[in-house]
Amino acid sequence: MTYRTSILALATAAILWTAAAARAETLTFLGKSYCPIKYEINWPFVTKAKKGPAQGSGIQANVYELPKESYEEKSAVELGSDMRRLRILAAPVQVGQHVTEDQSLVTYELPLENLMVEKEGLSRAKLNALEHGMASVQFRLAWLESHQEDLKNMAGQQAVAPNTVRSNAQDIEALLLQRDYLSQEIELAQQRYDNAVIIAKSKFGKNLDLRKLPREGSIRAPSDGYVLWVNSSLVPGMAFTKQATLLTVGKLDPMIIRASVHEIAAQKLKVGDQANVVFHAWPGETFKTTVSKIDYVAQPAMLQQPSFYEIELTLPNPDLRIKEGMRCDVAVTLN
C-alpha cells in the first residue's frame, strides 16, 4: 500500500510539474520606448483651417499634428492664419530642459494689426452701450407702468380717453420686447468679452493688464514636461512665413514600451501580466513592469499575411535614463 501511494504521489507531482511548466510559458518580442504624451507646437497658429482636438485658438501655440497626407509648404495666409509672419524675439529653450505648464517658451513680435484686433476684442464699449440702453429702457418701462395705473384710474373717472390707456399699454409691450432683446444681446456680448479675456491671458500671461497689451506674444508650454526637440531656426530675429514645427514638448516619466505581437501570442496575453524589459543600451540590466494595454484591432497587413497586435507596457523613468526610440527585448511570463 505504501509503495502504491508513493508511485501515485510521484505521478501526481510529475503531472503538476508538467502543468506548471506549461503555464510558465515565456513570450519574447522586440519593443521600443515612446513618450506617452507629446506635443508638437507648430506655426502658423491656424484660426480658420481645420484644427485637431488638442488645438487651441487665436494666436496661442496650437498643439496638433499636421495632416500626414500633406507635406508641401504653405503660407500662413493659405492656412488661414491671422498672422502673416512670425518674427522671433527670444527663444531661451534647450533640448532636455524641464518646463512647467503655461511657462513662456518663445516670445514673438505681435504685428500692429493683430494688436488692434486684440484690443477691439477686449473693449467693453459695445457691452457698456448695451447696458446703458438697458438702463434707459428699464427706466422708461417703470415710468410707463406706473403711469398706466394712473391712466386706468383716470379713465374710470372719464378724465382721459380709452385710446390713451391702450396707447400707453402698447408702448409698455414694445419696451418689454426691447428689454428682452437687449438682455440677450448683453448676455452674448458678455460671453464674448469673457472669452476674449481668457484667450488674451493664455497668450500674454495670467497677470495681464487689459489696459496695456504688450507688443509681443508668447508661446507657452501646454503641459509640464521636457523639451524634446527644437527647430534649429528658432533663434531671435528669425521670421517664419511658411508652416513649420517650432518645438516639441513631452513627458518622460513614465515611458511607454510598444511592441507588435503575433496573433497567436497576443491571444495568450492579458493586461497585468508581469514582464521583464532589457534595453539594448544596457544589456546587463533588467527592468520589471506589466502589460498595460492590448489592442483589439490588428495592425494593417495583407490578407495572406499574419496579423500583429500592438501591446503597451508602462515603465517608470524617474532618472530620465530611458529616451524615446530605445529598442528593447520584452519577456512576458504567462501564468
Structure description:
It is a single chain. This protein has helices at 2-23, 112-121, 125-156, 162-204, 263-266, and strands spanning 26-34, 38-43, 62-63, 86-90, 98-99, 104-109, 216-220, 225-230, 239-240, 244-250, 255-262, 274-279, 287-294, 308-315, 327-333. It has three domains: 21-35 and 253-333, Beta Barrel (Elongation Factor Tu (Ef-tu), domain 3); 38-110 and 215-250, OB fold (Dihydrolipoamide Acetyltransferase, E2P), CATH 2.40.50; 125-204. The chain has a six-stranded antiparallel beta barrel with strand order 1-11-14-13-12-15. A five-stranded antiparallel sheet has the order 3-2-10-8-5, with no helix packed on it. Strands 7-6-4-9 form a four-stranded antiparallel sheet. It contains five helices and 15 strands. Strand 12 (274-279) and strand 13 form a beta hairpin. The longest helix is centred in the middle third of the chain and has 43 residues, at 162-204. It is of the alpha+beta class and 335 residues long.
Task: Provide the descriptors you would attach to this structure in a database record.
Elongation Factor Tu (Ef-tu), domain 3; 15 strands; 5 helices; five-stranded antiparallel sheet; alpha+beta; elongated; 26% strand; OB fold (Dihydrolipoamide Acetyltransferase, E2P); single chain; 335 residues; six-stranded antiparallel beta barrel; 3 domains
